[in-house]
Design a protein that fits this description.
Number of domains: 2
Organism: Desmospora activa DSM 45169
GO molecular function, one term: transferase activity
CATH class of the largest domain: Mainly Beta
CATH topology of the largest domain: UDP N-Acetylglucosamine Acyltransferase, domain 1
Radius of gyration: 19 Å
Helix content: under 10%
Structural class: mainly beta
Number of strands: 33
Keywords: Repeat, Transferase
CATH superfamily of the largest domain: Hexapeptide repeat proteins
Largest sheet: 12 strands, mixed
CATH architecture of the largest domain: 3 Solenoid
Strand order of the largest sheet: 3-6-9-12-15-18-21-24-27-30-32-33
Protein name: Transferase family hexapeptide repeat protein
């Protein structure tokens, strides 16, 4: 037998399944979905029409934190949902409890953890890590090997360059007080963050801010302003021709 498909799974018209695919109970595949070789679709996962899933992807798995982890797994975590026309790369891992919009691209070896809300036409590049309880607005692009820490929020049309690092814990795991302060950065609509930049916990990158490559941002930025350096400091206004239409 080259595939394992649970009898309760609902398979739409024109679906193509690769060799050694596993589809667990209650999975729903819309019409014209393609699932690559050795992919695993965990129980209850809903895949929108026309979505393409590459080889060895793991879709809708339950989180399983370390015994010493502070993360608590909700036993009622809802099933993963992926909107129509999306593309999920090879060896990507998507956790249960998240929701992806339409025409989302998740690159090879990227992962998205539980309770994330991802808008339409979002690009999550190769090797990107999106931790739990992250919000990503529509038309945002996150490039190769960026790290989006838990409790971050990226608004619409944000650009995150390769290797960007976001953080959420100023105490770095020490003291009980840290639990009251853990929060990732907020990146407002149209902001751009250059390669290798570091965003500290809880800061806000204002709308249309431009963060230069390698900058370390330790405090909130002003709208439509270029920042560079360690620590990042304002340099000049963002040119008007680079601004998004209102």
């Amino acid at each position: 037998m080259s595939q394992v498909v649970h009898p309760t799974a609902r398979i739409g018209k024109g679906v193509e399944l690769g060799y050694f695919v596993v589809i667990e109970e209650g999975v729903v595949l819309g019409d014209n979905v393609t699932v690559g070789h050795h992919a695993i679709l965990h129980a209850g996962t809903v895949i929108g029409e026309g979505t393409w899933i590459a080889d060895h992807a793991v879709i809708g798995r339950w989180p399983r934190p370390a015994k010493a982890s502070t993360v608590q797994v909700d036993p009622d975590l809802p099933a993963l949902q992926i909107g129509e026309g999306s593309t999920i790369g090879a060896n990507a891992v998507l956790y249960r409890g998240s929701r992806l919009g339409r025409e989302v691209l998740v690159g090879d070896q990227a992962f998205v953890r539980e309770r994330c809300q991802i808008g339409d036409r979002v690009v999550i590049g190769r090797g990107v890590a999106v931790e739990n309880q992250v919000e990503i607005g529509s038309d945002t692009k996150i490039q190769t090997d960026a790290y989006i820490t838990a409790y971050s929020r990226l608004e619409e049309r944000v650009f995150i360059a390769p290797g960007v690092m976001t953080t959420n814990d100023n105490f770095m795991g020490r003291t009980e007080a840290r639990f009251q302060h853990i929060r990732g950065p907020i990146v407002k609509r149209g902001a751009r963050v250059g390669g290798g930049a570091v965003l500290l916990p809880g800061i806000t990158i204002a709308s249309e801010s431009f963060i230069a490559a390698g900058a370390v941002v330790i405090r909130d930025t002003e709208p439509a302003t270029v920042y560079a350096g360690v620590p990042a400091k304002p340099l000049r206004p963002v040119p008007k021709e680079e601004m998004l239409p209102q």
